[in-house]
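Notes on consecutive records. When two proteins share a document, each keeps its own sequence and its own token line. Never mix them. Below: protein one.
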Amino acid sequence: MTPVELSRTVLHAVRRAVDEGELSVTVPERAVVTPPGPGGCGDYATNIALQLARAAEQPPRRVAEILRVRLLDDRRITDVVVTGAGFLNLSLEGAASAALVDEILRRGRRYGHAAGAGGNLVQLQCPAEVRAAVVADATARLLRSQGDSVRITYDGRPAPEWESVLGVDTKGLDTKGVDTDGMGPDGADVTIRPIPIPIPIPVPTPADPLPLGRDAARWALLYPAAHDRPRITGDHLVQRETNPLFRVRYAHARTRALLRNADDLGFRPEPGPVSGAEALVAVLGDHPRILTAAATNHTPDRLARHLVTVADATLPLLSAVLPLGGEKPSAAHRARLALAEAAGTVLAGGLSLLGIEAPDHL
């Protein structure tokens, strides 16, 4: 069960409680599910009971207990625990992680992308400044991942180095105004009128990022939130744990090395339940929501920080993937290898949307 499916399940429990007369509330459009916070347990948690308590005129814990009973009717949920003021903590059956891994491996780097064209032709407007241009380029990639067609309008002419060094796509730019046609993601003509949208104007870069090269420069400009001042230093090039970009790329490269080593040992990944990897499964399942939010809000920094979270959840798993000594590969090894491959796939796909390479070797 993915976080999106779990969110729908929570809303279904609310709807049942309303239909059966135990809650008198308007069913919300969505229920937020996240990895449990401090004091929580299980695979996911939701604050839906606290959200509904005032309208229901009942204490949050009472609302949580009403929903808990209905959530336990779903065979994919093995336990529901109410903690704190009324947080619902949900544990999922082991097959849930296998289904998620299978979906990621099936969709590859397009996991989290929209299934079809969204029908919007978006016209991003941004100043001709290097950080704004990189943010607009990454935002366009995110919007296209969600099915939209995108053009970028600059206040002036972008510098040629922004394309040759930083990989900013200037092929579809427009410096004269709003166009009325374009090319859809599937190659079909789009004849609807574009939606002009100004991107959040980020704090300009304090120094020239070009000497860092494409990958480090783009990361330096995209990782901070738009209102934060980017650091243009050589720290983005160092290969150590204090460098978030290195951690993301290192975690990806390690997953690829494990696949090569496993192949040498004669076994392949096979999705299955993995114990002790709940945090990683949760953040992988949250990837589609992050992509949608980053695209909708034009915040590629949100994706960058999410990739760091995925990498930090991936690295502890990797030491247990391969058999040790004379140990023979088991179903547990194959399941852990599949989960590692899925994590590497999400990291590579996310970096690609930021315009950053994910090398197989570091």
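Protein two starts on the next line and is unrelated to protein one.
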Amino acid sequence: MNTQPIIGISGCLTGSAVRFDGGHKRMGFVMDELAQWVTFKPVCPEMSIGLPVPRPALRLVQNSDAALRMRFSHAPHEDVTQKMADFTGAYLPQVSAFSGFIVCAKSPSCGMERVRLYDEKGNRGRKEGVGLFTGALLERYPWLPVEEDGRLHDPLLRENFVERVFALHELNTLKAHGLTRRALLDYHSRYKLQLLAHDQAGYREIGPFVASLHEWDDLDAFFVAYREKLMAILKKTASRKNHTNVLMHIQGYFREHLNSRQRGELRDVILHYRNGLLPILAPITLLKHYLAEYPDRYLLKQNYFAPYPDVLGLRLTVN
């Protein structure tokens, strides 16, 4: 099992000159910061079906029966849909080992949303398509963290994506080492506060499901169901309100150890975060300080305090 999360990525986002115009869309955060913590597996679906660089632009054409076709803009009757489907079908099995995928926005092969559609006469339609490669990826792996380059400029979506990548990687690693009931329960226990920060209703729903683990004879089947539920909860971006509830909950563990001044300081930092005056890094840093001073077995195991490498600095910008 790879010690780092494996992330698939559209080749142009790594800086490779594989776009139709011979250019690239290198992402600074991805290649300069995230790359040292993950293993990237670049792919360019259009080059993989034998197209050159540069090449004529491709477009998605929606025919009369609503089916999507991939055709060249300069030669609308030259269809490469089947070639793309054949490549995608052969490529996707390896993605089962991946912990995430970053795709190129607006691309007829890789776009995740809002890809321009055309009709068979070449008329421009709405931006409501999904690239053929990414569409198949999302259908086959609905639990997989997938984002496109444009959306990753949003600090909240960036943090959420990276968090999900590392959560799935840990779950994949657990499975690779051999599933046991104890390992699954321990994993879920470590993620309780993290889930609560993302979706309180989802947190309450997944609890009874995990409690039913002893009723499952097939651990692999439980794993598949649990993975889908877990990743669906984490996909919902953590809100300031939910984070505040979690921080207040953690604060209660130190009530007996702190004097009135310290309790007031901690409360004020949490409230300043709730009111948007401080990033979430501030109350978490103070809580980690008190956790080092007054260790608690349950809190020390919580992934909430370090869901990904701190040096990525994602909690400096996310509220």
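For the record: Residues 118 and 124 are 5 Å apart (CA to CA).
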